[in-house]
């Protein structure tokens, strides 16, 4: 049986990679005088795909806890990038919508993110990236089953 080495584990490497991607994207966003973070961009991105999600849905999609998502939403509301609206079918629930200012970030930030990822994946064959994503997707599915 092969000896477990923490720093060689896929979990450790994915975590470090994720942190590096996030920290460097935050640095690039700051250099561009953008006033959002990579985490906030994640929320905006899900709303660009499907506006009018609940806070619970955003927590599920981002795999973040409700407290973290609530903080992200509050900060985006302060910046007038999103807004809460009562759900017509259930007044106890608020739906989260992008404002026009939030929608306008798509082009500006998406290009920056695209350049960031191109730099991160420089020298890596696209088929290797596809395989890597496929493996990570499978790991995530396996973990969701538990």
What does this structure look like?
Helix 1 packs across helix 5. The protein is about 65% helix and about 10% strand. The mean pLDDT is about 95. With about 150 residues, it is mostly helical. The two termini are about 25 Å apart. The chain contains 6 helices and 3 strands; from the N terminus they run ααβααββαα. A 3-stranded antiparallel beta sheet has the order 1-3-2. A hairpin with a 2-residue loop joins strand 2 and strand 3. The chain has a single domain, classed as Winged helix-like DNA-binding domain superfamily/Winged helix DNA-binding domain (Arc Repressor Mutant, subunit A, Orthogonal Bundle). It comes from Pelosinus propionicus DSM 13327. Keywords: DNA-binding, Transcription, Transcription regulation. One of its GO terms (molecular function) is DNA-binding transcription factor activity. This is DNA-binding transcriptional regulator, MarR family.
Could you give the topology of this structure?
Layout: H1 10-31, H2 38-49, E1 53-54, H3 55-62, H4 66-78, E2 82-87, E3 90-98, H5 100-120, H6 126-144
Helix pairs in contact: 1-5, 2-5, 3-4
Protein name: DNA-binding transcriptional regulator, MarR family
InterPro entries: HTH_MarR-typ, WH-like_DNA-bd_sf, WH_DNA-bd_sf
Keywords: DNA-binding, Transcription, Transcription regulation
């Amino acid at each position: 049986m092969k000896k477990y080495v923490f720093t060689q584990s896929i979990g450790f490497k994915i975590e470090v990679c994720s942190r590096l991607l996030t920290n460097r994207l935050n640095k690039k966003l700051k250099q561009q005088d953008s006033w959002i973070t990579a985490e906030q961009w994640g929320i905006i991105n899900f709303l660009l795909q499907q506006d009018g999600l609940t806070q619970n849905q955003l927590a599920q999609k981002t795999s973040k806890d409700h407290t973290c998502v609530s903080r992200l939403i509050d900060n985006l509301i302060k910046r007038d990038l999103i807004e809460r609206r009562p759900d017509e079918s259930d007044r106890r629930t608020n739906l989260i919508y992008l404002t026009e200012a939030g929608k306008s970030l798509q082009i500006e930030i998406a290009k920056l993110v695209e350049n960031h990822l191109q730099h991160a994946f420089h020298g890596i064959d696209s088929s290797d990236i596809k395989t890597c994503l496929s493996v990570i997707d499978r790991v995530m599915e396996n973990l969701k089953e538990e």
